UniProtKB/TrEMBL annotation:
PANTHER family: PIRIN, PIRIN-RELATED. It holds the Pfam family Pirin_C. It comes from Dactylosporangium salmoneum. It comes from the Bacteria. InterPro entries: Pirin (IPR012093), Pirin_C_dom (IPR008778), Pirin_N_dom (IPR003829), RmlC-like_jellyroll (IPR014710), RmlC_Cupin_sf (IPR011051). Coiled coil: none annotated. This is Pirin family protein. Residues 265-294 are annotated as: Disordered. Belongs to the pirin family. Residues 170-263 form the Pirin C-terminal domain. Residues 273-283 have a biased composition (Pro residues). Gene3D superfamilies: Jelly Rolls.
Amino acid sequence: MSVLEEGRDVPLGRYTVVRRSLPNKTRRTVGAWCFLDHFGPEDVTGKPGMRVPPHPHIGLQTVSWLLSGEVCHRDSLGSDQVIYPGQLNIMTSGRGISHSENSPTDKPPLLHGLQLWVALPESARFRDPAFQHLSVLPEVSDRSAKITVAVGELEGATSPAEVHSELLGADITLSGGTEINVRRDFEHAVVVTEGVARVDGDEIGRGALLYLEPGREKLRLEGPARLFLLGGVPFEEELVMWWNFVARSHEEIVEAREDWMAGSGRFGSVPGGEPPLPAPPLPTTRLLPRPRYR
């Protein structure tokens, strides 16, 4: 079975609009991947570019992937890291962290990339926060495809990214058609970042997400196009997601919001003196776990 979902436009900060592909109407997770925003390509000449003030996270990992441009990550651990295309930033919130993401003042004209979240399993969601920057990632190439393995393992190449569940994240540039081997126990999804691709015969355009259920051992990919392939063992733990928090209950969300608004030491502070982003009001109804799919 495959399901195609179009992304929806969502404002991010004051200056950026993203196409949100996950969660969507029919599916909330792909493996432990629980969030995917596709931003750009946008000409940011004479514009601020990305401007996301300090904000908190719990219970997740952020995975930042650029296709064009530069973004500076700062966090409450003291990390201060500019990411460039082909590199990976992966931040583990654990019990609590805060960070900001901003385009440098002296930035390239084009901004284009993906921001993803991974839900942490119960065994890791209260761990110490951490940050990892990978400037070099493994690649696999043939005449029709170039594959960069950002997370997990594909076609014999294994990323050094530290994750806490069985996952796959790979950037694939297609000049023609190719076939790749995938894990039968993984569910997968494809988001196209450039061009139009065909995946096992299904056509998918830029900004849409194609979900592929477990049971496949190979995928046939056809371009020319560029895409990002997600995969993982279906994530069976219940999730309560609200704002920047991934938790298991309404009470955990309330506590995290109160800690952030009170300026408690749980989330630390991001260097640079930029005012933090206030949390929105909680909904008037109780937050409940949502099913993985409808």
